[in-house]
Amino acid sequence: MTSDHCSLETVTVRRVTTDDAPIVANLVKALFNELRDGAMVPQYRSESISDVLAETERSFGLLALDGSRAIGVLMLTEAVAIFAGGIFGQITELYVMPDFRSQGVAAMLVKSAAELGRARGWKRMDVGAPHQPRWSRSLNFYRSEGFVEVGPRLRLDL
User: Fold this and answer.
1) Phi-psi region at 151: left, alpha or beta (left = phi > 0; alpha = psi -120 to 50)
2) How many domains, the chain?
3) Is residue 89 within 8 Å of residue 80, measured between CB atoms?
4) Which GO terms describe its molecular function (predicted)?
5) pLDDT for 8-42, tens place per residue?
């Protein structure tokens, strides 16, 4: 039976390794499934997880664990840009299992990501919030963690 709460005293955050690919895959697939209302996730996204985890020079992941159970993941990448003043991090995925939300788990992941970024000399950390107003809870979370809005983000599929 699934617990619908956790004690932050039992939650730990650690770096992801390539051995964690199946765990990360399950959590990220759950994220994509939620964002896409159950629509099929393109196969290339699932297939890219191991490649992303192997890219240890510029891709990083953090797992939140309640005991030995993975309950959240944060993936981020390192980039460089003039607008950012040099090296910066970008959160690419952040997911906490629904039963463990609003209990401080995502905040622990973001704090750990910020610590990693400071240690690597990042000037800032960016994130793209999901579509509004539907995902306003996510936007409000990021604001509560000190993020400020800088405008919409766009993409071009290649």
Assistant:
1) left
2) 1
3) no
4) acyltransferase activity, transferring groups other than amino-acyl groups
5) 889 999 999 999 999 999 999 899 888 877 666 66
